[in-house]
Amino acid sequence: MLKINKNYQKIKKNYIFTEISNKKDKYLKENQKAKIIDLGIGDVTLPLGKNLVKVMEKALAEQAHRSTFKGYPPENGYDFLKDQIIKYYKRRNVELNRKDVFVSNGACCDVTNILDLFNKNTTVIANPTYPAYFDSNFLQGNSIILESASVQNDFVLNPKNLNKKSYLIYLCSPNNPTGTVFSKNQLKQWVDFALKTKSIIIFDCAYESFIDDVKLPHFIYEIPGAKNCAVEIASFSKMAGFTNLRCSWTVVPTELKIGNQSLNNMWERRQCTKFNGVPYLVQKGAEYALSEEGFKECKKNIDYYKKNLKMLLKNLKEVGIETYSSQHTPYVWFKCPNKYTSWEFFDILLTQCQIVGIPGVGFGSAGEGFFRFSAFGRRKDIIEACKRLKKAHL
Ligand code: MLT
User: CATH 3.90.1150.10: does it fit domain 12-48+295-392?
Assistant: First the structure.
């Protein structure tokens, strides 16, 4: 008999977002007239910017001519996009070179695939946080330390309770689901801890474009020493609306080593073997999205979602619900009213308001009693959701 990966028995049968989607489908089957408003998975709803689409149409047209046709893309990205990413970091005074940057097809893939570089370690993960971190670490057979980042510590994870040993450390800022953003000082504590303990930080900044305060760090490399202890993973999904097109980047600095082993060389080796690159036309769109002009176009959509966030926060407060999100996130994180558990509140919202959200406990045990709404919806749906919340007796 072949041996299977028994770690699959350690994780829940369904991934949280699949579970929610199944529940929504079941409800719709039983209530065919229901007009559900889906504030669950954080998926964008606004179309791509017009200029961005023009750039991609032009790139697609190039594939129609022998002289400009392209076959496989370079596994780690075209230089034109790497150079644009390098420029994007320069705006925040971070210097990178082409070898540091790896273009990829999604932050979710890279935050989990990066585990290929490591073998049976202890991983520190915030509780609550993005569920792919703990699922993938369970599957890998790693030991996991879940560090609570909830009301009692203002949702900010801190290394002070950890033993001084080497860990893999997942940090997400702005955090999904709580919206917390590390200040420079808070992030420095993690970088200093990682340097001292020879730990590696996997910094997920998929929502950095939602940060509105210039003083807050977008990238971990804004902190001195981070290139010696951190990998960083960013995404075009929420910033440019690429959840369908798929494009992201990962920075593995050439300085980053464990003993004599370069993680940059290992990641390059891994990607060349297991990944065939991102389509040319998608990379052309991504290049445009990071240009000054393109970013302005993307920012309009980001601002629209942030207005949704404000409306949801305001309305929840008005019905007496305690909310916690910062303004630097597309997610509304709030306490379930009347001491409901997360799943109880999910059912109440679905049946009374026909609104779908994500139970906080789906992001880890410390999310029990909390709930998350996505602000990526269409404005008319957000307005309607607010009306229904006000009408319902929660
Ligand atoms: C979320 O809803 O947390 C994310 O959008 C899902 C994802 O990025 O995989």
Answer: yes
